[in-house]
Each structure stands twice: as C-alpha cells, then as structure tokens.
Write a structure and sequence with these properties.
Length: 284
C-alpha cells in the first residue's frame, strides 16, 4: 500500500468524531466574486480534498437521464445550436449538448424555472457529494474535505458539513473582478445575487468568515489560521458534540483577506498558531 503523503491538514483527522467519520467536511460559501475558489485552492495545497459543486453540476448536464429530463421540462431551446463547426472543429449534429448560458439565462429570470431545474439536478448532485465524501474518508489521505458550493445553504447541503466558512469581499471589489473576468455588469451580478440568500443571512450561518481584500499572501496566512481553528475546535466526543464557543463570542470570526485572489467559478453554478481565535462563533 502506498502511504499517504504528509499534509498540513492531517492533524484534523479524529477517528469517529466528525459527521462522516475520521475527517471534517467544510462547507465553503461566499458572495459572488469573493474569491471562494482561491480559498479552496489554498486548502487543497494543504491537504484537503475539494468537491467543486459547479463541476459536479456541469458534469451532470451531460448525463443522458438528466439531459432528457431537462429537455422534457424546458424544450430544445436550451440546446447548443447545431450547424457550423465550433472552435474545436466539432459538429453537434442531431444530439447537441445543453447550452448552459441559455439555460442559465432562463432560470435566473424565472424563479419557477429555477426551482424546476434544481428539482432535477440537486438530488443527483447531493448523491455525488456523499459518494465523494465517503471515498475521501475511506481513502484516508485527506486531512479534510471541502464542499465548495455557492448555494450550499439554499440547497440544504450544509447538513453534510461539520463547519461552514464564508468568504467575503467588498462589493465594489467583487464587481470590479466580475467585470474584468466575465464582462458582467452590476445588473447581471444583482440578478445572480437575487437567486441566492442575502449575504447577511449567509454570514449568520457561518462559523468562520474570511474577508478577501488584502492580497494573496494575507489569504495564505488566514487559511493557515482557519486550519488552526479547525484543529482547536474539533469535537472531542461524538459527532453531535457542539462547537465550543468562548463566552465573548457574538458573531462569526472576521479575518482580513485578499484582493488578487482568483474569482470563484460562477456557473450552475498549517502552521499551528498558539491558540484558536478568541472570537470563533456559534452557528446561529
């Protein structure tokens, strides 16, 4: 058997103490354009297994059963146009793939349509998340699992997680990043945000908050602090043990964080510190 390489997150393993067994599952959420995926990358470099909900959702759109159900509900107007070859020389012929842009434009403009799409794709996405978590626990190499999902709370996937981390950045900075990376206007961002819970509501559900407005080096430092906190507040008993909370805590911990972090995917889409932060907070 090939031994697992050492990782900075391996001390998080506490056999039988987390919801899924030996390693914690961290739900990673954040405002659109906050740099959530950069935080996930930082955790991956420290030994975490990352489950990218956007990637899982995109893959499901290619599943014949899911594709068929979407066509039955939304019609062939959500298919990529056939005809001239695309930039890679492919021709779709009579079996074109789903056009994610067309589908996204439809569901973000209509809450009923969005609910119908979620009813089709969310159950198999959740099943895939559970399989990926189980595989990571069985493999035993990861120090933690990160479920990177913008709509984690809205979809109810937070019950798969031991802790929730919220990544935030000032709105003007997020708008600047989105305009530069995707050409999105403020109106486009607002429409996407309208399909999600308000940020204040998400913050209140988080155990830890990272503020992404101080540069990539600072982000790395704060990812280390997050790992330190997770180690210090790992449950000492069974999976139902609550997160210990210092008496002075009144809100989730806020950490300075990075502008310059890479912008999160937008489709469907450690060094031990001496002690944990004194303001780690209870989930509301």
């Amino acid at each position: 058997m090939t031994p697992c390489p050492p990782s900075e997150a391996e001390e998080l393993r506490r056999p039988g103490r987390w919801k899924h067994g030996g390693i914690p599952v961290i739900g990673l959420i954040g405002g659109i354009g906050s740099g959530k995926s950069r935080v996930a990358q930082g955790l991956a470099s420290r030994g975490a297994t990352i489950i990218d909900a956007d990637a899982v959702g995109h893959e499901l759109l290619r599943d014949p059963e899911v594709r068929g159900r979407i066509l039955e509900r939304f019609g062939r107007g959500v298919l990529a146009e056939s005809g001239p070859a695309d930039g890679e020389g492919r021709r779709w012929g009579s079996d074109p793939p789903l056009d994610r842009r067309a589908l996204g434009a439809l569901v973000f403009a209509d809450p009923t349509a969005r609910a119908a799409l979620e009813a089709i794709v969310h159950p198999p996405m959740r099943a895939q998340f559970r399989r990926a978590i189980a595989n990571a626990v069985q493999d035993g190499c990861a120090g933690l699992v990160v479920l990177d999902a913008a709509i984690l709370l809205e979809a109810g996937w937070d019950d798969l997680c031991d802790r929730i981390v919220f990544v935030e950045a000032p709105r003007p900075e997020r708008l600047r990043r989105l305009a530069a990376a995707r050409g999105w206007s403020a109106e486009t961002v607002a429409a996407r945000e309208h399909a999600q819970w308000p940020e204040d509501q998400k913050r209140r559900r988080a155990h830890w908050i990272l503020t992404n407005d101080a540069g990539a080096d600072r982000l790395d430092e704060e990812v280390d602090r997050l790992l330190s906190w997770l180690r210090a507040w790992a449950p000492a008993g069974d999976a139902s043990t609550p997160v210990p909370v210092p008496a002075a805590a009144a809100a989730p911990t806020r950490l300075g964080h990075p502008a310059g972090a890479s912008i999160e995917a937008m489709s469907l889409t450690d060094r031990m510190l001496p002690s944990p932060p004194a303001t780690a907070a209870r989930r509301s």
